[in-house]
Amino acid sequence: HVITALRVKKKNNEYLLPESVDLECVKYCVVYDNNSSTLEILLKDDDDDSDSDGDGKDLVPQAAIEYGRILTRLTHHPVYILKGGYERFSGTYHFLRTQKIIWMPQELDAFQPYPIEIVPGKVFVGNFSQACDPKIQKDLKIKAHVNVSMDTGPFFAGDADKLLHIRIEDSPEAQILPFLRHMCHFIEVLGLCQEVQKQHVSKSGIGEPAAGMGEDYPWRF
Q1: Which of 31-40, 43-52, 53-62 has the lowest mean pLDDT?
Q2: Pair (74, 139) in one structural domain
Q3: Is residue 131 within a helix (H) or strand (E), and if so which, with residue range?
């Protein structure tokens, strides 16, 4: 189970909607099953004998897709399907899995989001609070910081190889441009420069890994 997720229930072989969630107000709705890896749905035709294997494995929509189709009728925003399902997600983010199913509102409010992942497993962007959280540092295996603020964090103090502190006031007038060359050099020394460049190329233009299913099925993959 993924932390903060709600388990979908079934009655008479039909999926039930979560009673505690106002789907019309939900902005980010993510559905996952065990291991969905594609959004493609093939419809079985009784007159079509092209399925020589006869197992029909790829002809039946997986649970996440079936439920996602139901939710699209009730949400104002796109419904997202988690690629690879729980198996892939929990393998990469094992620290976000749990046996707990029921969450109190206070627990959900206190849950600390993790930094944004820019390059998988290598580069993250977060706020100062996340940069000071020992659990987040341990879970993400953070080995260096670029601190762009006036505050001093608790990690890598005095280690110039692992900490670059750019002291800039948090104001609209602040200028970060003069420091970009220094920051890029610091990242290059860490050996992440090529990884960042590869990620930028793969996410620009035609190669962007996103798929839309049309206006009737506003899903994102």
Answers
A1: 43-52
A2: no
A3: helix 128-131
